Amino acid sequence: MFIDTHMHEMTYSKDSFLKLDQMVSIARQKGLGGICITDHDSMGLKEYAAEYAARTGFPVFVGIEFFSLQGDIVAFGIDEYPKERIPAQDFIDLVKAQGGVCFAAHPFRNNNRGLEDNLRRVHGLDGLEVLNGSTSADACRKAAEYALELGLFTLGSSDCHIPEKVGVCATYFPEEVHTMQEFLAAFKKGGMKPAYYTEGGYQVIDIKNSVNLRAAWI
Predict the structure, then answer these.
(1) Domain of residue 73, residue span
(2) Which of 16, 11, 31 is nearest to 165 (CA)?
(3) Cα(7)–Cα(162) distance, integer angstroms
(4) Looking at residue 213, which CATH number applies to its domain?
(5) Is 106 left (phi over 0), alpha (psi -120 to 50) or beta?
(6) Structural domain total, the chain
(7) Stated pTM of the model
(8) Are 106 and 134 contacting, i.e. CB atoms less than 8 angstroms apart?
(9) Is the N or C terminus of the chain more exposed, i.e. has fewer CB atoms within 10 Å?
């Protein structure tokens, strides 16, 4: 099952040009089995997304992309989150205390919003985004190297804000998930792999192969 694990919907991410209906329509066309709405510092879409998923039968998992003092972290499975920036470790601890999961978003993107070398200083991350549809191949390869070094799960996602980016990258889950409980259980179990969309389907990436990583941008 392929899920785009990092996406922005315009209601609460003001830099997005996407509505949920449009995101799901494109996701279905590309063969995604579910999507994740991870708005900037907000989970405001949570109730509406739950109603939408129940009505349409298409899984929509709402998390958050939180801008910690050291960089962006995507989290799922939480109800409470800070209304102001706090240290990355404090946010990770908050997620873990609520039984959630989290991963570093685009850790080496050149915009001062990635954890970068703080990856070696924080504890408790579940994974790293090693393939991001809005991040360079070099930055993604570096994230993959850190994931291997630190033994973290690897994810791919579009980080979409416009229609053309929806589903360009995604994460392969080895089992079907339809509820947030199933999503969290599968995430904690691991086995996810990054993938990119090409020629009408998804190509799973071997992060040990740098040539394979670069193919996502060709």
Answers:
(1) 2-217
(2) 16
(3) 10
(4) 3.20.20.140
(5) left
(6) 1
(7) 0.95
(8) yes
(9) C
